[in-house]
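Objective 1.3, modelling of assemblies. Example input:
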Amino acid sequence: MSLFKISRLLFAATAAACFAAGCSQKPAEPATPPDTRAADETAIRASDDEFAKAALAKDLDKCASYYADDAVAFAPGMPAVIGKDNIRKFLSGLVSSPGLQMNIHIESIDVARSGDIAIDRGTVDATTTDKKGKASTQSIEYVIVRKKQTDGSWKIVADTSANLK
Amino acid sequence: MARGFSHSFVISTCIAATLAAGCSHTQPLAPELVDMRKAAEDAINATSEEFAKAVDAKDVDKIVSYYTDDAVLFAPSGPAAVGKDALRKAWQGFLAGPASKIDVSGTVIDVAASADLAFERGSFTNTITDAKGKTTAVTGKLVDIWKKQADGSWKIAADTNASDK
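Predicted structure (tokens):
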């Protein structure tokens, strides 16, 4: 075997080896993350829906499960609520409101291109009934910040609202 | 001697060729994303400083210029201000009231990996001086949502606040 042939064999073998060593753990194409925004928006709409159902069913555990551990909540006429334990107490007040009915109108859902942060905005008409059975409706504007969790679910990190009037 | 030279030449050529051909587009993505987020955070902090100066100068036009057209403002009390006209009125009302000095502290900014959306959490102290020179401090928490604009600037889409008590 001539030196030339040996060199060609070595070239092929070394090229294969260094290709495998240098590139095996990396993607072959530039990494453009998939655009998940449409699916994220669908998931968030479903999550809003489930939350409303859980609140009407007075399912406190379920309602609290939509919030991140370090979440904050700003509700009309109330001091800032910080952390999951306090959020739970706040939600407990919400779900025990007599005759509670909630109509959520989502105005917009803005998902970051990277699908990790989303803003959900809209209005809620919350109707409660007093001891005499008289219903009153409070209309609020809300802005909710959600973060995608490692398991792909979305959790609320900030739930802010104010009365519309 | 000749053979040794030949081998090392072949190997180094092939490594260079392989790296150039196979690996040039496969740099790890993460450091780039960290850099984008850091740059976004710096830009938001710089904008916040300008915003604070506009508030100190009671420059309503300048203040509202930092909000998106459809932005919302939830003050610690009072109804929601929705849209730029309502925001302008809310700020005019605030600035016409007792002398206030707003200090923001402990802010944490979470930027989406795509650096198009961010939210900021923090605390505020509003020191109010009445006509007799008596000061009262109101403390609270804030959540601001920032959106990157087509021109690369960052604007506030939601400015939400709640008092601590």
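Chain A has a mean pLDDT of 88.
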